[in-house]
Specification:
single chain, about 750 residues, alpha/beta, GIY-YIG endonuclease, Rossmann fold, 6 domains, seven-stranded parallel beta sheet, binds adenosine-5'-diphosphate, binds zinc ion
Amino acid sequence: MSRIVSVAVPVPALDVLTYRWPEGAPAPVVGARVDVPLGPRRLTGIVVATDITPDPAMKLREVLAVRDETAFVPPALVTLATWVADYYVAGPGDVLTSALPPRVLTGDVTTFKRRRVARLTALGADAAARVAVDPACLSPADAGAPRLGARQREALTLLAGVPAGLPASVLAGRGVSSATLTRLVQCGFVAIHHEAVSRDPFAAHASVLDDSGPPVLTGEQRAALDVLEPLADAAAYRVALLKGVTGSGKTEIYLALADRMRRQGRRALLLVPEIALTPALAGRVRARFGERVAIQHSGLSDGERHDQWHRVRAGQVDVVVGTRSAVFAPFASVGLIVVDEEHDTSYKQDEMPRYHGRDVAIVRGRQQDALVVLGSATPSLESFHNAQRGRYTLVSLERRVADRPMADVHVVNMREEWAAAGADVTLSRVLIEGIEQRLAAGEQALVLLNRRGISSAVLCRQCGNTIECPHCSVSMTVHGTGRRARARCHYCDFAQAVPEACPQCAAPYLEHLGVGTERVEQDLAARFPAARIGRVDRDTVSTRGSLTAILARFGRRELDVLVGTQMIAKGHDFPFVTLVGVVSADVGLGLPDFRAAERTFQLITQVVGRAGRGERRGEACVQTFFPTHYAVRCGCAQDYATFVTKELEFRTALRYPPVTAMINVVVRGTTLEQALDAAGALAREVARGIAGRPIALLGPAPAPLMKLRGEHRAQFFVKGGDRGLMNAAVRGALAAHPALARRTSIDVDPVSML
Ligand code: ADP
Ligand code: ZN
């Protein structure tokens, strides 16, 4: 009787598959890579369970090739990925694909090999590539092996004598061409491994590598560590919420804890929300701890990602710094997981699998008996609620390092400004005056506006029509001026010339509404021709590394004013910034999203917190049309306590998270009617699954983003306290309508309601 295993394969939304283990092959282990048949295809997947009891009625196919005798993916990570797939109603293969470096799992082994070889060729003399006879492939494939040519046999004989393999450069030197290698890899005789770290992602950040060692901790930092250190030492699951005002020195606490773990021979994982923040923190960690540090984020090249992953996997690393996906860093076990800026929405992946990095970090901590530290000046309502209920240990830092004062905040009512200076004013008198002073004093200013472009909508004053994207139900944003002006869709990137007359009524009275960062930059340049102005938004930092480059220039004071979207509001520490301007503090308040106030509060608090982080006192100027809105008021006052009390009242009254859980189900269709019909069919099935339980079903209704990239969208929400049951009901609905599954996206704990 042969053994049965289940395997996760990289096919979207597919559950694990069951196969017979080949007779005579080494015993199966969880985490090993295997090639399996699926229909006519050959896929590479990961063994997620061994010794399955099969359904006797089912005819099972056999694993085609066993690539590893030991776990390639640490079993702890397989357990975590399985949890993620289950909780977020995603395929385990999807989760493992996002957890692993590119192309470890592949949907088609033939392309897989071709790509690997292509990379080898591209690497040229790169000593990191090592070619070896692959024992796993050689034996079973032998019998049916296609005949080899003389060159290929020669190369194989050469390689067979060196079990550890030879660097690609050596092989090239011995006249083995890449075509020969391609053939051998395709036949499954040799494998290419990438070793050694010849690519150093830290190289670009050498300037931040000098670190004078840990500073003398402040009293508050010491007190916080007195609470956190015993939790870290206990090697038991615990979550701590480190709530510390901006500039209170949270990073020092993370470093002290990571250092403590390292000295105990345990591992630490530091997560940050933004790629641009990784090199800065990684540089500091590297300077403090030396070589045994790795960096993981999606901005690295494929080669770098492989290098870093294998170093961690091989136990050569104590501390990993990275963005969301680094929560899956291949440590066999971990003692500390830090989630910096835990409230940040970029921790949520907005495509399948739609996991939340912070929540996965917490689950990983629970599975591996680790301390999880969530840090923020503006904790999410979810985390704060858990701390209030005693689930998390709350640790607070109330003061800035060296007792630096918080910025003085001026709130400018833009209604009054418009009454005084006209409705096309973007920069208030207070803000202009403030920038003038900074330029004169050789200090710096940050100007935030959470919207790109010149104007955010084009409106016909005669018929009231706004110019919409032909593929999406959103208004087009204008970018560029004069002949270079284009109307662009921020969702699908469709662009067209800005019409001179209304396409609907032909009237020539088109008005541009709402300003964006590009317009603010222009206005600043017109006002301050001698100032060095930089801009950071998705238009200027589309290429890898450009955000880091602009921020570095600003850090070296080669720019006086930096204009940007929320990218500039996050964790950066610029000691010469003494003025922060927020152009439209309330752009987010109008969105149909119950978290609109929370986002606005966080954004204002974070950006105001960027001012005055050095020796000099800071000032902030917040322009708004709603100066009395509680999100604006509390943000300006950096008053978390008042905000959170008010916001929790609202969430409780309307039964929104964190007092309840939500799943957002979006169904796409070629017409809205079709999408609504399909959503209706799924919703009826969900209703059956939750009948008689205190769970609500809202919708189906057209989604706020009714049309996206030419597809119509309908949505419904499942809302209630019993996540297990809600999850099962949604799964049941998909199983009952398999044809709809491809058109449906499930978002558990959504952060976007659109
Ligand atoms: P936060 O993450 O809480 O906003 P940071 O950790 O970035 O704050 O610290 C703010 C600034 O204070 C940084 O420049 C940091 O180097 C400095 N700093 C932190 N702790 C100390 C300390 N104990 N003594 C002196 N400077 C410190
Ligand atoms: Zn569009």
